[in-house]
Amino acid sequence: MREYEMMFILKPDLEEEQSVEAKERLQKIIADFGGEFGKELDGWGKKRLAYPIEKYTEGVYSVWHFKGQPETIQELDRVIKISDKFLRHIIIRQDEK
Fold first, then answer.
1. In the chain, how many domains are there?
2. Total Cβ atoms within 10 A of residue 81
């Protein structure tokens, strides 16, 4: 299993339950593919974007660390792309040290 870091930006106008639902769905995907959810780095919260995305000037940032297989990443990427709750995302494999 490889270690990954994922950063995503949720739309700022989502209700709290919608944000929680989106995050729980991602955690379920990680678990369903045999991955291990590491930790969520809190403290980012709502921040101003460097440039407008879909007419939004702010977004809710989250950074996660987890372990998973390449199939996990493909599924996370697919689900985030089809969801209308996310503005941007990036998933990076952590290099071995």
1. 1
2. 9
| Beta carbons of 22 and 10 less than 8 angstroms apart | yes
Strand 86-93 with 36-53, pairing: unpaired
CB 62, CB 20: distance < 8 Å: no
Residue 7's domain is classified under what CATH number? Answer: 3.30.70.60
Residues 6+ apart with CB under 8 A from 31: 37
Rg value, the chain, Cα: 13
* pTM for this model (two decimals): 0.87
From CA 71, how far away is CA 62, in angstroms rounded?
22
Task: Please tell me the number of Cα atoms within 13 Å of 67 on its side-chain side.
Answer: 7
Return the SS3 of 27: helix
* Pairwise CA distance, residues 38 & 66, whole Å: 4
What does the pLDDT look like over 52-86, one tens digit per residue? 999 999 999 999 999 999 999 999 999 999 999 99
